[in-house]
Structures are given as C-alpha cells and as structure tokens.
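Bench log, entry 3. Co-assembly request; chain sequences pasted below exactly as received.
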Amino acid sequence: MRATWDIFCSVVDNYGDIGVTWRLARQLVAEHGLAVRLWVDDLGAFVRVCPQADAQLLSQVQQGVEVRAWPLDWPTVEPADVVIEAFACALPAAYIAAMAGREQKVLWLNLEYLSAEDWVEGCHGLPSLQSNGLSKFFFFPGFTAGSGGLLRERELLDLRHALQADEVARHRFLRSLGVAPVAGARLISLFAYENESLASWLSALAIGPQVTQLLVPEGRVLSSLQAWLGGAALQVGDRRQRGQLHIQVLPFMQQDQYDRLLWCCDFNAVRGEDSFIRAQWAGRPLLWHIYQQADNAHLEKLDAFLALYKEGLSAEAQSALTALWHAWNTGQAVDESWNLLLQSWPEQSEHAEQWCLQRASQADLAAALVQFYLNWL
Ligand code: TRH
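Structure output for the full assembly:
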C-alpha cells in the first residue's frame, strides 16, 4: 500500500504558502508515487497558480493531487500516514485528535519557512512533544547539507538547460506570453512588492548603455511602476518605452510558465520564498525582495543568504551585489549599485550557474521529506 500524505496550507497572504505546498504536493505524487491530499483554506489563491482548478469545488484532482477545500466546519477524515502543516498553520483540533487516536502511528511535520541562518541546521528535524502525547517534527528547508534542502523537481535543471540552449524554443515560449523579443536587449523579469527603489532602477535602465526589455507579471509592484511611468493605470498586455527601457505587463501565469520566464531572462527580480528559489534554479543573477517582517528581522535573513551566496565572488562583485540587495530592500536608490553590478556582469552570471549546480548536488526537499519518513518508520 502506498503511503498517504496530508498537506495543510493556510494562505496568510500572497502566493508563497500555496506556491510551495502545491509544488511539493505535485512532486510527491509525480516522483514518489504517493497519495497526497492538499487541504487549502483559500482556493482562490490556488486557482491563481493553477488556473485549471475550480475554486468552487470541495474536492478535485489536479495533476494527481487530491485538492480539498479546508472548511471551517471540519469533516470526519481519516488522518494520513504523514501529516505536514505548512508554515506552522494550526491543524483542526478534530484532526489532531484523530491523529492521536489512529491505530497506525502518524508522522507529524511542521514545514518551516526558508532561512539561510546558522541556527536552522541545529533545529532541523527536532521533535517537539505535544500535550496529547504526539511528537511534531520541525522540518527546515535550507541551502546547506544539514537542512531539509530546497524544492527541485528531478527534471528541472535538464529542462532549464534545454530551453536556455534553444533560442527558437525560447522565442516561441515568449511569444505565447505575447512578448516579442527586442533585438539585442537584456531581458529582465520583475516580481516584487511595492518598492520605493524601483524608480531609481528604471531611470538607470532608461539611460543605460544597453537596451533592456523588462517583463512584469501582474502584481503588487505595478503600483510602483505606475508611479514612475505616470499616465493611465497599467493593464495586462500594456507596453511602454522610456529611452533604452521597454516595459511590458504580463498576465500572472501558472507556475511552470513562470519558471520558464525566469529561464528565458538574463536577470530576475523575485520576492518572498518560492520565486526566490526558482530564480536560483534559473542559474541567472537575481535580485531578492524579501518578505518584510517586524523589527526588520528579514534583513538578518537577507544577510545570512548573502553571506552564503557571495562565497567565491571577487571583492568588487560581492560589494556590488550587497549594495544592490541592501538598497532594494531598504527603499534606497539602486542606480549606483546597479551600474556597479553591470561591471562584474560576466562574473555574476557565471557565479549564478555555479551556485545553482552546487545547490542541486544536495537532496531536494521532497526527497528529503520522504527519506525522513522512511528513517522514522
Ligand atoms: O507571493 P509571495 O510574496 O509569497 C510570500 C512568501 O512566501 C513569504 O515568505 C510568505 O511569508 C508570504 O508569502 C506569506 O512570493 P513567493 O514566495 O515567491 O510566491 C509567489 C508564487 O507565485 C510562487 O509559487 C511563484 C508563483 N507565480 C506564478 O505562479 N505565476 C506568476 O506569474 C508569478 C509572478 C508567480
């Protein structure tokens, strides 16, 4: 009998919670042959990353995953062999009681947020005894061998390399999004929160030495883009040109398409958690808009990642990267640091690919979860 897994996703805001759990659920089915139920409390968010889905259905199968609405009024459900609460979402009390009462024991995991901080390795995999006698284990994704790893599908890098090596296929894909590549342009994707630094970057790109084609999936950063451009409110499909800068607003696309957009671009501005990881798998230089936390706790996370990522870069390349990322995340002007980064462009590009290959030599998060379960049995 194949093992059953329940993944619980409570959508706090944005698309990171659903983005991560949906990818994980799909991969557990496709690569490990598991029976997976994904419980989601906001099917509207799910439909954004999986447009084939129906937000009205209480139960539906998408790509082999049984996607279930997580109702307030919790039904009687037999718990799975492995239960994942994503990002410390609180499981229904009746479900926890059923876990405790189940004849066959249940592995209960809390899948944590991603962080490159040192303490992650020490906490990864630790159990915490709950009042009902069950143990809950903390599972930390991460960038180092002592963590739970990163979501990465088995074929991902092969598919990415193939697309990057095939200009015709890249152009076909871009055309499917309504994008006509501008000859000789540096292609950049932009996915970020509202960002006061954006204006200085756009101004630098507009007067830059090279043509830039900036592709912006619909989302929160559009208000900052709109403020710089002026004029009528931006809509999907709109194009604007300012000097050397060509801008196009794209629809919010399904996850696999977004991955391909990242692979096509020379530079990707990403945010949160999941797009941040996907940009690393694209093997191209990136700019991270980290999710803001109280007391600027996110800036420590940013630096923890930078400390790891910068290893192997020259001193000039390191300081350009650090200056750009710091300015972008603190609302400062980024024109100077962007121009500095351009000076080490070949090195930054080479480094991004190396970083990707190094991370890919570690076990991926789905495989690590399955192994954790097998060790626990
Ligand atoms: O949407 P986010 O800002 O999510 C955030 C973070 O996860 C953050 O850590 C968390 O605390 C907060 O949510 C609640 O950024 P993220 O993580 O990149 O998630 C975006 C998802 O949307 C990701 O799975 C990629 C996907 N996506 C598409 O499917 N299509 C698109 O066109 C775009 C731009 C993104």
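The radius of gyration is 21 Å. The chain has two domains: 4-150+362-376, 156-360.
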